[in-house]
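[Q] Does anyone have a clean structure-token version of this?
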Amino acid sequence: MDIRNVPYSQIDLKKWDKCIDSSLNGTVFGYSWYLNLVCENWEAIILNDYEAIMPLPLCTFLRRPAVISPCLAPQLGVFSPRLPAPEIIDSFLSCLRSKYRFVKVGLNKYNLISDEAFKIKTGLSFNLDLIPSYTKLFHSFSRETKQIIETGRSKKYSVVKGLRLNDFIQFYRTRCVHKSKHDDKIFYNKLRRLISFTILHRIGELYGAYSPENNLSATVFIIKTRQRITFLASAMMPDNSGLLAFALLLDHLLKQFAEKDLTIDFEILPCPPKYVPRFGLYPKKREPGKSLSGLYKGFGATLFNYPIIVYNNLPVLLKTAGKVFNFGSGNTCNIYV
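[A] Here you go.
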């Protein structure tokens, strides 16, 4: 078994993307083109002839080389056509910590970890199988969700495909607050590049939902790859107009893609909106994911957790500094929520 660290210049990108295409746990975040758009630099750990691969997003942390997931790639980890055994995962992680002294990376839900050198946190995501007809999907919605959709329809909320990029960014920006102008600039530059690239290659779409007064009230950016739709970035107004618009937008997408061999992934980025209503009720604590969870569950989506691994083997003084600075880095998004 040959597991090795490979610099970007030596990665065979065709073999890499072929591995992601054939992986049972493949996501859009693992494709080379996606990593090129959202990472400053990246390299990889590869098993044999691309039998299993793990992207490593590189950055500097306290002037030391580190591996930290970008905000726009929350789920990475080990990808393989066969679900990798725990011992394979541990071998990859052992290779990772032998080279880097600081790591903070989201893996995917199929990566089972037993390496005790890593602390494990939990990320949230939801998915929904779109093979059933829309009628069957609608029956699985919660009663409250159905009522919200009917209210949105009766009040003449409308959904538009092909929202302008600048309109999306401007609206999304009003719902996000970064800790620094530097982080804000990096994040939105990457988001713009990602949206422009995917729309150009006809795999990305921007949708907007408008109130009866023709005010933009909710937006979403999706990426379509293989048998998966990734619901990547979304925002809504923090009132009932936002709730009605967002629910109607989701309903519109489920109608559009129902009865297709697709799964929709609802991602909850570590850079969420400031706050969104939870079926008319505002959460007491504005924590990432909690306000969106009720929305996605109401549409019948299934919650799953994925591991976020943290490894800190820096010298003692740098470890302390890392806690003080809250892992700040140009490759991450630190946002007040």
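[Q] Thanks! Anything notable?
[A] The chain has two domains: 3-117+307-324, 125-300.
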